[in-house]
Design brief:
Length: 368
């Protein structure tokens, strides 16, 4: 099996058969530690000991969609719905900026209230107030026109998990009104428009087979996104999948390791879901190959309401607490948290303005 890890590292891909053998054989003695070690070596070459920190703002839990796994699905009448006002969102960004964040991730359900005009206005406003920050959107499926408008307003990254690249599995997890084809189409459109794109999937979702995971890896290889978000499936009590078992820490970590070797430059978050199924889930995620963490910047008053799954962590913690907690966690395992935009645009900008040379202290500042 270690041969397959070596081959994946060398060639950055495997055949369908080999991917399957590696995933199915992952519990072989010593294999996972070996994979994690290689993943860390590969990440170290590109990113050193740096872990990027993004501020997550969950700005609406209204959703027109009805994904069977999700706690904020339209059919869940138990969900206590909220949406943040533009002022509240801007306030989160201001607070986040003071805490050092230079990337904001605006995530929400597919809320029809946020028309192109409303959302573009918010993006423009954040962009205007914080021109040194990257704006990431994660608001589901929209039209190509809408994606273009938001891009022009200043959003440059977009997260849209594909959820599963296997047709049958996709249909099992989603209502008949949704289709995998449209989902993938959105991802290709986002890419075409010029967004840095993130896709992703849940590990251990009901009905997921090894073949589904292989489909995910092959799809990621084809799409070549900048980011891939994966986390364990965790049942939510008020969804049709309430009684299903959660995905495991072990399988999620193994896939993180594989993804790092598949694409060494990938931005790979150690997700909140991973931190939810194990107290050290996010640390273990980084040690398996992840290099991004996304602490929550949402106002504490709404955190209990953005519940995609049960027992979500950090719902009672202020933005500053999460930020420092995360920094301490990463320091605890020997990594430096970096709040910069984390791409060459920021680097080029600094170089052009001569900031790095003029003020070396400032660069220090970003390693907080
Ligand atoms: N368990 C884990 N992850 C979930 N998501 C939605 N519901 C759940 C759940 N029950 C993930 C989906 C979605 C992302 C925002 O959260 O993959 O794309
Ligand atoms: Fe939120 Fe630790 S990251 S409390």
């Amino acid at each position: 099996m270690k041969k397959l890890v070596d081959k994946l590292e060398r060639e950055r891909t495997l055949s369908r058969r080999e991917f399957k053998d590696l995933i199915d054989g992952r519990q072989e003695e010593g294999l996972a530690p070996y994979l994690f070690q290689r993943a860390c070596v590969v990440r170290q070459q590109l990113y050193g000991r740096e872990v990027y920190m993004r501020g997550l703002i969950e700005f609406t839990n209204y959703c027109r969609n009805d994904c069977l796994y999700c706690g904020i699905r339209n059919s869940n009448r138990q969900a206590d719905r909220y949406r943040l006002s533009k002022e509240q969102i801007l306030d989160c960004c201001r607070q986040g900026h003071e805490l050092g964040f230079r990337t904001f991730v605006l995530q929400g359900g597919e809320d029809p209230y946020f028309t192109d005009e409303r959302l573009a206005e918010i993006v423009r406003e954040i962009h205007g107030r914080h021109p040194d920050c990257a704006i990431t959107l994660s608001v589901g499926e929209r039209s190509r026109e809408s994606y273009r408008l938001l891009f022009e307003a200043g959003a440059e990254r977009y997260l849209l998990r594909h959820e599963t690249a296997n047709q049958e599995h996709y249909d099992l997890l989603h209502p008949a009104s949704m289709s995998l084809r449209e989902r993938l189409q959105c991802l290709y459109e986002l890419k075409e428009i010029g967004y840095q794109v993130g896709c992703g999937f849940m590990v251990g979702s009901p009905g997921q087979t090894t073949d589904c995971l292989v489909d995910d890896l092959l799809f990621i290889k084809e799409l070549t996104p900048q980011m891939v978000g994966i986390g364990p499936f965790i049942p939510h009590k008020d969804t049709p999948l309430a009684g299903e078992p959660a995905g495991t820490l072990e399988a999620t970590l193994f896939l993180l390791g594989m993804l790092r070797l598949l694409d060494p430059a990938l931005l790979l978050p150690a997700t909140t879901a991973l931190g939810t199924i194990h107290p050290q889930g996010r640390e273990l995620g980084v040690q398996a190959g992840a290099n991004v963490v996304m602490p929550n910047l949402s106002p504490v008053g709404v955190r209990e309401k953005y519940l995609l799954y049960d027992n979500k962590i950090c719902t009672g913690d202020e933005a500053a607490e999460c930020r420092h907690c995360m920094q301490n966690r990463m320091r605890g395992i020997g990594y430096d948290v970096v709040v910069s935009r984390g791409d060459c645009a920021g680097f080029i900008q600094n170089t052009l303005t001569g900031r790095e040379q003029a003020n070396p202290e400032e660069q220090e500042e970003s390693y907080v």
